[in-house]
Specification:
The protein is of the alpha+beta class. It has one domain (3-111). 36% of the residues lie in helices and 19% in strands. The chain is built from four helices and four strands; from the N terminus they run E-H-E-H-E-E-H-H. The chain is globular.
Length: 129
């Protein structure tokens, strides 16, 4: 999976516009704060990814100055976190969601994944041994 280094939200949206339906995933590179180098903000990355049907996942250290976050197209059966559902609703109101994302949301609603919680169910009481 290739590494992509971008510094602005508009560059990230442009990359997604051109590649969201061609790539199977990327490692998006971020600079750590101590470097004082321009880098994308996490919320901007997630919001734009959601607009194109993509989702973030794991992080890996590249070196002392950089790390990368894995971003991939969302799988139809993946769970939706409450935070991402709220983000999507905000993006829908702002009319930033693309057709690719609308198809993913519609599929999640039809399958019931939209209403399921991404968090595992925790029993109300811990059973005694």
């Amino acid at each position: 999976m290739k590494q992509v280094c971008l510094t602005t939200r508009s560059e990230w949206r442009q990359w997604l516009t051109q590649n969201h339906d061609k790539e199977t995933g990327i490692w998006l590179v971020f600079y750590k704060k101590h470097t004082r180098r321009p880098t994308l903000e996490y919320d901007d990355v997630v919001e734009e990814a959601l607009c194109f049907g993509w989702i973030d996942s794991i992080i890996k250290k590249l070196d002392d100055d950089r790390y990368a976050r894995k971003l991939t197209p969302r799988k139809p059966d993946s769970a939706w976190s409450d935070a991402n559902k709220k983000r999507v609703m905000k993006l829908l109101r702002r009319k930033l969601i693309t057709d690719a994302r609308l198809a993913v949301i519609d599929a999640a609603k039809k399958s019931g994944r939209w209403t399921e919680s991404a968090r595992p169910q925790i029993p109300a009481r811990v059973p005694r041994n």
